[in-house]
Amino acid sequence: MTLRETLMAVDLEKVYKLINKKDKYHKPSPTLEQTTEAYQPVVKELLHKPRTKAHALTWLVEEYQNPGEKIKYIGVCFLNTKYVEPPKGAKPWGGKNPPKGHYNCNLNKYNRTFAVGFTPWSKVIDTPVAITAPKCSLEQAVAEILWEMTFYGWSEERVNSQVDHINGKIKQAKKEIKEGKCITIPPKTKDGFTVVIPESISNTIVDLINKLRKKK
Q1: Sequential DSSP letters for the chain
Q2: What is the pLDDT of residues 112-124, one digit of tens each?
């Protein structure tokens, strides 16, 4: 089933209750009425999107477990249907022309999954949903997807605006690095990585530290 088909098949009242339950961890937590009022327009916008071909990546609802923790949880991502396992024994390398014994971990083919947040809604509304998490109902899967989709905004326009803003910050950071306006921290070990912090990022960190000091 595609995302559009799942939205049409589920009991939306149950979906809103599940989302509200997730948001109980936030303080102040919203009421069920507030959650419903927030997500009804989201569902309406999604269902009114023009039909489109399936995205190259597939919706994936699966179970996760953080290292060192016993609690498991359900999360949402995009599954890379063209995923290729990295060369056996090779170490990840964050760039082109990796040295012997390494592979370029930035290549899409070596990434099994991708984050959902910045993908335009209109491109994924008619994309299939795969559910691998055990005992996960269709309502819970939809709740997880909607919750993830709205992380950066309550409409596709808002999400796209956030994407443009972040892309602008990335371009600025790359420009600063190219111009040498950055802090470079050498690796602690022979096989370690060099950390490069653009000027705009370091200034932001300093501002945050100063604000925290003023609050104390």
Answers
A1: -BHHHHHHHS-HHHHHHHHHHHGGGSSSPPPHHHHHHHHHHHHHHHHTSPP-PPPSEEEEEEEEE-TT---EEEEEEEEETT--PPPTTPEEESSSSPPTTEEETTSGGG-SEE-STTS-HHHHTTSBEEE-STT--HHHHHHHHHHHHTTT-SSHHHHHHHHHHHHHHHHHHHHHHHTT-EEEE--SSTT---EEEEHHHHHHHHHHHHHHHHH-
A2: 999 997 889 999 9
